[in-house]
């Protein structure tokens, strides 16, 4: 099975599970649920839940034990995008090729839809029946992880960051959820400690790699293919890897990081090939 | 021990625990933690965590097992106030006698401080070691509870609501967390099913009672004593109990609801007296 086929199949599994996750809430306000679903079903690569399902399958041969947690992870990612797009934050009118939540439903509904998705994510996470999984979610999404990174990102706007500072921003903002996705998938697959350790290490590098290529795509990418505007980083003088290292330097760093990510899986067998392929593919991605 | 003394003692316990809850986060951005602490330490009655500690003590003779969850509950309440005060929501410049979070730190930080408090609440909740407690939190704070009620409240602005519709708004917006506080306290105290049942019923009525008296205080209360502006409901033509029933009608409903709350505790012994006293006291509260 090719990498693309594998990822698409996992993505289909995630989207099927997501479609049913918001159906059983008859006592919730219908319009709020509509706003939540609008952002949740807007698509995207579903990278985090796909990684979670793949890690679970690597650990136990099936992705089934991680399906619910994968939905929870996508809910957390989606809430963060809704709040990030708000006028007081990044002020983005478009997301995944459609009007962002606050453009579609108004700011107040967007704030509440984000709050509701975060809360529902913890409900779904707790339904997995594992407290260690709930703790992973809360730690990765909180002040030591994603929200902390978002704050640092915002605070760094207009400032010149060092490479170390930039990596610290992204270790939180994107890295924490990507690493947690792999860890939670491994935990739910009852992975051996050395597998959990290898996937954690791989996750940190994959998160870095993902961010470098995200920054590169903002320079060389195609808006239609990406489903979002490009060139924004340069216009807003945002600290990025290409801005710090040049485009070639950033691409070289991406390739070196991909190699390190593959190395992190050294002790795992061919069952980890899909993760190796993914890391090797990312420096050349176009969306 | 008088009611006031009892509540103050529990409040002191909560505030002591809250003060340490944000101390162990060296890798989080310090300014974001400052914003979280600013709102968390702003005071208030601490009604929800106090109810939780009291319910736990009623069930098992000690409030200790509920201290951590009580902090989590106050974090959720505090996050909801921060987001509720935002310009796109209620647009309140003051909260508990001080500038609201977005006036003090800016809108973006206020949004993230709220997100961070909600996330940290689930971390603390999970550390209690009970999945049923995490589920109670997520259900009460989400679309079927608080966030759902906040959405309905916002949606109902400028409309004439029936008494039923108004009660539905508040059953979510204030009732859900108040009821969950009592339930979680009881669960952590390993309460017998009939005690949990009685406290759940009491909690729903107490939440209603609390909201009626909150609306009444907006008409007859003193801004300095309350630490917030008064008369806002009338200015914004908000649906309230006094607006629907008149001031005397609202006070009569408060007293009848207090009686019903006391009745809900019928099968409990003198260990529940503090809850009876609280219900009887609420119609006459001045803050």
Per-chain topology:
The structure is a homodimer of 287-residue chains.
Chain A: H1 3-21, H2 30-40, H3 47-60, H4 67-85, E1 94-95, E2 98-99, H5 101-105, H6 107-127, H7 131-141, H8 146-155, H9 163-188, H10 193-220, H11 223-226, H12 232-235, H13 241-264, H14 273-281
Antiparallel strand pairs in A: 1-2
Helix pairs in contact in A: 1-3, 1-4, 2-6, 3-4, 3-9, 4-6, 4-9, 7-9, 8-9, 9-10, 10-13, 13-14
Named CATH topology of chain A = Farnesyl Diphosphate Synthase
Q: What's the helix count of chain A? A: 14
Gyration radius from CA atoms of chain A, angstroms = 18 Å
Number of domains of chain A: 1
CATH architecture of chain A: Orthogonal Bundle
**What CATH first level of chain A would be assigned?**
Mainly Alpha
Calculate the terminal CA-CA distance of chain A, rounded to whole Å.
21 Å
Largest interface: A-B, 47 and 48 residues
Oligomerization category of the chains in this entry: homodimer
Shape of chain A: globular
The CATH homologous superfamily of chain A corresponds to Farnesyl Diphosphate Synthase
Strand % of chain A is: under 5%
Strand count of chain A? 2
Characterize the largest beta sheet of chain A: strand count, sense, and whether it forms a barrel.
2 strands, antiparallel
């Amino acid at each position: 099975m090719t990498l693309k086929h594998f990822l698409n199949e996992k993505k289909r599994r995630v989207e099927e599970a997501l479609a049913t996750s918001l159906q059983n809430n008859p006592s919730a306000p219908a319009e709020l649920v509509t706003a939540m679903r609008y952002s949740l079903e807007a698509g995207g690569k579903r990278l985090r839940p796909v990684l979670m399902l793949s890690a679970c399958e690597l650990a136990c041969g099936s992705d089934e034990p991680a399906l619910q947690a994968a939905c929870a992870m996508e809910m957390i990612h989606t809430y963060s995008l809704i709040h990030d797009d708000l006028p007081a934050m990044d002020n983005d009118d478009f997301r995944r090729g459609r009007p962002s939540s606050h453009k579609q439903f108004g700011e107040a509904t967007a704030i509440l839809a984000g709050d509701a998705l975060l809360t529902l994510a913890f409900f779904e996470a707790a339904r997995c029946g594992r407290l260690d999984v709930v703790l992973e979610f809360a730690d990765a999404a909180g002040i030591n992880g994603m929200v902390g990174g978002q704050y640092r990102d915002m605070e760094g706007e207009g400032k010149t960051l060092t490479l170390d500072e930039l990596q610290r921003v992204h270790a939180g903002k994107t890295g924490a959820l990507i690493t947690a996705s792999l860890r939670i998938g491994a935990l739910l697959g009852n992975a051996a400690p050395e597998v959990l350790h290898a996937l954690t290490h791989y996750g940190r590098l994959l998160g870095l790699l993902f961010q470098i290529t995200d920054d590169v795509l903002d320079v060389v990418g195609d808006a239609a293919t990406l489903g979002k505007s490009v060139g924004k980083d340069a216009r807003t003088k945002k600290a990025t890897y290409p801005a710090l290292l040049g485009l070639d330097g950033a691409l070289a760093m991406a390739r070196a990081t991909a190699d390190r990510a593959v190395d992190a899986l050294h002790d795992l067998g061919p069952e980890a090939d899909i993760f190796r392929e993914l890391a090797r593919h990312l420096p050349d991605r176009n969306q």
